[in-house]
Amino acid sequence: MALQRRLVVVVVTASSLLCVYVLCVHLEKPPSWSTPPLKDAPGFSKAPGRSGSSAPQEPLRKETGGDRRTRPPPTAAAHPEVTAPPTAARHQPAEARDPGVSEAGSRYQGGDRAGTKGPPAPQRQQLIGGDGPTDPPFIGDTYKSEDVPPQTECRDGIRSRVKKTAFRGRFLEHIPVLQWAEDVTREQHQRLSRYPGAHGWGGIDYETLAETLSVLNASANRLLLDDWNHRGNASACSRCAVVGNGGILKESKAGEEIDGHHYVFRTNGAIVKGFERDVGSRTTHYTFSTNTLMNSLRSYAGFRGPPQSTETRYVFLPDHDRDFLLMKAAATHRAVERGRERAEDPTKYFGADVSAEKLKMYHPDFIRYLRNRFLRSSALKTKYKALYRPSTGAVMLLAALHSCDQVSAYGFMTPDYRKYSDHYYDKSYRPVGFFINHDLRMEMSLWQQLHQEGLIRLYGHR
Ligand SMILES: *[C@@H]1O[C@H](CO)[C@@H](O)[C@H](O)[C@H]1NC(C)=O
Ligand SMILES: *[C@@H]1O[C@H](CO)[C@@H](O)[C@H](O)[C@H]1NC(C)=O
């Protein structure tokens, strides 16, 4: 029996290693579908093409285990994730799901609605967007529409500027960025169950959702910049620094400039200690998924856990029920009830002072919207489509784009990325790696485009 089980483990390990190897080889070739770097647009004084750095590296999602694997590619040693318990393997192929309920009726809400002042309106079954005639059902370019009043009266914020750019058709002003207690209804569960992983609630039962998301039941949980009224006056514009972990930040001396923003966003293996001069010391928002956090803790020497300070908020990017369970544990200061992190003490990651008000969770409609409208990689046309999602760093930067009035991006990948190591904290040079679960080249050209349109300021080497 035991021998048999061991044999199965060995076979599974060997085939997944082979699988990862094939994926890596596949991706070494410059994919023909990656968007070419943009030419400098006239009228922009900065030349974005000169900058370089990389997006936060992320573990590769592995098909067989239903989970993702840490970079760098594993050695021959058996990997604990290969034999992950089936509770973690909830990543169902999108095409296996039944499109199910019809979205007829209130399907099209029209991208932009005016009049966003006043208290938050009650949640309504309003949907925005709409699939193109040739979109397969797993795309699901239809989203909940939400009336969250703007947090500032900034006249020249991203939301007003975007209307004059090439992004105006893609940008949905009323997309919900975060999910919270009131999002959980049977109707929403039925709608979102069609989409697996980070793109929906596929594989997560209604009871788990209801019992976990109920802890996010404060207005702070639905606003990314929940403490804005302590930070700026009514007419000021919120300024956010979004910090990726790219090697371009090494020796950048950008720390003071980064800390000078109202908000400082970081992600995954964001090592601050010892790098303050280059990357700053504050963290107001730390973005991660349970999987990327655990993998970062395993992979990056020197990364001891998420930053902790009184101003730090934790923003979960959920792609399993693990994330919901860890989030609930963090809010209640109790051990994780079940699943892969069972019995883990959440204060180990988020400190003893964390409260539910400091926790947030991205809405699956937001992640799907980013994938469909900003990072629709041709990986979605391959058999790997279920593995693909925007990287954690990309979600963080695009969430800032949808929430802040001004965004400066530091440590994100630029066309000269080969000049820099993968991370600013790497002891010696290591090249940026490309895997099928993200499209870092497409993300890189999106950052170029957003910079050229004046919607973000992308840090480049000076
Ligand atoms: C959230 O709080 C409101 C008001 O305090 C309450 O009526 C509602 O039932 C709560 N929702 C959940 C899901 O706990
Ligand atoms: C509000 O903030 C802006 C920008 O920070 C500043 O220029 C302005 O003087 C402030 N207004 C008041 C009333 O404090």
TrEMBL record:
GO cellular component terms listed in the entry, alphabetical order: Golgi membrane
Lipid bilayer topology: Single-pass type II membrane protein
Group of enzyme by EC: transferase
Pfam families for this protein: Glyco_transf_29
Keyword Manganese: no
Coiled coil regions in record: none
UniProt xrefs under InterPro entries: Glyco_trans_29, GT29-like_sf
Annotated region described as Disordered, given as residue ranges: 31-153
Subcellular location: Golgi apparatus membrane
GO molecular-function term, one example from the UniProt record: alpha-N-acetylgalactosaminide alpha-2,6-sialyltransferase activity
This protein's UniProt keywords: Disulfide bond, Glycoprotein, Glycosyltransferase, Golgi apparatus, Membrane, Signal-anchor, Transferase, Transmembrane, Transmembrane helix
EC numbers for this chain: 2.4.3.3
Biased composition (Basic and acidic residues): 59-70, 143-153
Catalytic activity: a beta-D-galactosyl-(1->3)-N-acetyl-alpha-D-galactosaminyl derivative + CMP-N-acetyl-beta-neuraminate = a beta-D-galactosyl-(1->3)-[N-acetyl-alpha-neuraminyl-(2->6)]-N-acetyl-alpha-D-galactosaminyl derivative + CMP + H(+); a 3-O-[N-acetyl-alpha-D-galactosaminyl]-L-threonyl-[protein] + CMP-N-acetyl-beta-neuraminate = a 3-O-[N-acetyl-alpha-neuraminosyl-(2->6)-N-acetyl-alpha-D-galactosaminyl]-L-threonyl-[protein] + CMP + H(+); a 3-O-[N-acetyl-alpha-neuraminyl-(2->3)-beta-D-galactosyl-(1->3)-N-acetyl-alpha-D-galactosaminyl]-L-threonyl-[protein] + CMP-N-acetyl-beta-neuraminate = a 3-O-{alpha-Neu5Ac-(2->3)-beta-D-Gal-(1->3)-[alpha-Neu5Ac-(2->6)]-alpha-D-GalNAc}-L-threonyl-[protein] + CMP + H(+)
Record has Protein biosynthesis as a keyword: no
Pathway membership: Protein modification; protein glycosylation
PANTHER family referenced in this protein's UniProt entry, alphabetically: ALPHA-N-ACETYLGALACTOSAMINIDE ALPHA-2,6-SIALYLTRANSFERASE 2-LIKE-RELATED, ST6 N-ACETYLGALACTOSAMINIDE ALPHA-2,6-SIALYLTRANSFERASE 2
Sequence similarity: Belongs to the glycosyltransferase 29 family.
The protein, known as: alpha-N-acetylgalactosaminide alpha-2,6-sialyltransferase
Native organism: Gasterosteus aculeatus aculeatus
